[in-house]
Amino acid sequence: MRAGIDLEGIVDRAIALLDRFGLASVTMRALADDLGIRPSALYWHVADKQTLLAAVADRIVAGASPADDVAGAARELRGALLAHRDGAEVVLSSAALGLGGSGAAEHLRRALEEQGAPDAATGANVLAQFVLGHASLVQQRIQAAELGAYEGAPDAVARDFDAEFDAGIAALVRGLAS
Description:
Blueprint lengths: L6 H15 L6 H8 L3 H4 L6 H14 L7 H13 L4 H10 L6 H12 L5 H27 L7 H7 L1 H16 L1
């Protein structure tokens, strides 16, 4: 095994593969090849691919900066998801399996608590589901636009849905407050 391989470096390379080729190309074999090691050497650092993807999901979510309000926190989280190809899918699938990505709801819970929401934990879970679903839809449309199967420029797709996203967050926040 090459000297200097650690979990942080493995996650860095997995994210680089994700950004360049998409989730389907992030395999243990491709990652090992990229690192210049044997696939079995990866298992010294991660138990399996789902554990690796959970660490990737946690890193993606950690890219969301704190915000002064719930809407800002939701936008920051969405931005962190959209910053990585298939980022929403990685976080969504890891969170669904209870392996990673829980920081998404935690990020939103902190913002809700700061605004005095009565049930911040439930509200955070509801908001996280909306943010993850919306970001997943946008990322699929971006990929479709790249292939010519969706009208519009790929780099404009996320911006095209900003107002819709903000309206959805505002409606959810109003509902959670009542």
